[in-house]
Amino acid sequence: MTATTGAAQPAQPERPGRSDGVCSEFTVFTKIKPGEADALREDLATLSDATNDGRVHAAVRQIGTLHDARHVIFDNDTRFMFASVFDGSWDAYIDDFAKTVVGERFDKVFSHSEGFPGVTDPGVKDWFVAHQAPAGVFVSAYPDLTVQQIFKDHRVDEAFEEMLDTPEFRAALDNPANAELVASPAFQKLMEEAAA
Fold this sequence. Notes:
Region (Disordered): 1-20
Protein name: EthD domain-containing protein
Shape: elongated
CATH class of the largest domain: Alpha Beta
Organism: Streptomyces sirii
Strand content: 5-15%
Helix content: 40-55%
Number of helices: 9
């Protein structure tokens, strides 16, 4: 049994943004430094190219909580929006970016925003909070699935699909000893889902 001391536990600061199940949204609007919209556009193009070379996807996989992200320049090249969907705590999400190649790219992209202190700066979370605007409505298509669960489900699906194509699986289906299993509603449902 744990003793209670009566001392107040440090509370996690309240962070803006809406959640739907395990998914949370993060939307930041910034002012682009005068004359830097084209440089920002170039850095975003480089980020997009890096996405195609696999390093950013590997880093996103390492972070393991990012569902999606988008960057938008708007208002005649004066403003910038970054929006994403993630799992878990807001603070851990921001911290995780500094630990991978994504953090370097985040720094490069946001360096074109007025006042950005850098992703490893102790004040970066306050800066993001000051520039974050919660969505009026946020809905996830899969509110109960984390990124890790989606990765796992995908791996299981690939393995199952691969197994379906083997002669050993076909022989197991045709084996009279497995007739009861094959006829079960759960197995039938599984096969229907695999065929869909």
